[in-house]
Amino acid sequence: MTAPTPMRMVSCAIALGSNLGDSQSILQDALAALNATEGIAVLTHSSVYQTAPVGPPQPDYLNCAALLQTCLAPEVLLRELLQVEASFGRVRRERWGPRLLDLDLILFGDLVLTTPTLQIPHPRMHERAFVLVPLSEIAPDWIEPISGKTIAQLVEQVDHSGVHLLKVKES
């Protein structure tokens, strides 16, 4: 019997958001938790942006994006993201409601995938400035595989007037 062949390393993009608690620390701690997860390496992350919420009345969000390298399959990576959310106390009560931590898998290489639990690329990324603005900071030339457009091109097609740089990225 031979050992299973490990999956090749794939670059992924995730979006992070928080609007409850010490959101800035939560985002930093979530990146550290992801980087400490077996099979995931955080390559870089964007600056933090303050954005108006989508959905019911609630506090503004802090958002950022990160590029990961992973050997995990997409569904396994999603499970890891959900476990990190849960470890920060995330409870899913209300769609688009306030949250301590939200981690969304946005892109997984050039994969296009639709399953009952996961859609890649993220189905609403192209209309969300709070995802595209931070992502364009760290991956402007990444080509979204359905539209064939770069992240830089996609960000120019959305109203990003409500997305404000909070602070300069720490090195």
Report what the structure shows.
Strand 6 and strand 7 form a beta hairpin. It contains 4 helices and 8 strands; from the N terminus they run E-H-E-E-E-H-E-E-E-H-H-E. It has helices at residues 23-35, 74-87, 129-138, 151-156, and strands at 10-18, 40-45, 48-51, 61-70, 102-108, 113-114, 119-120, 163-167. It starts with 9 loop residues before the first strand and ends with a strand. The longest helix is centred in the middle third of the chain and has 14 residues, at 74-87. It is α+β, with helices and mostly antiparallel strands. The strands form 2 sheets. Strands 1, 2, 3, 4, 5 and 8 form a 6-stranded antiparallel β-sheet that branches. It has a two-stranded antiparallel sheet with strand order 6-7.
A few lines on this structure:
It is built from 4 helices and 8 strands. The model has no long low-confidence stretch (mean pLDDT 90).
Shape field: globular
Helix content: 25-40%
How many alpha or pi helices?
4
The percent range for strand residues is: 25-35%
Q: Order of SSEs, N→C?
A: EHEEEHEEEHHE
- Rounded mean pLDDT is 90
By secondary-structure content and strand pairing, the structural class works out as: alpha+beta
Largest sheet: 6 strands, antiparallel
As a whole number of angstroms, the C-alpha radius of gyration is 16 Å
> Which residues sit in consecutive blocks of at least 5 with pLDDT less than 50?
none
Cα end-to-end separation: 46 Å
Number of strands: 8
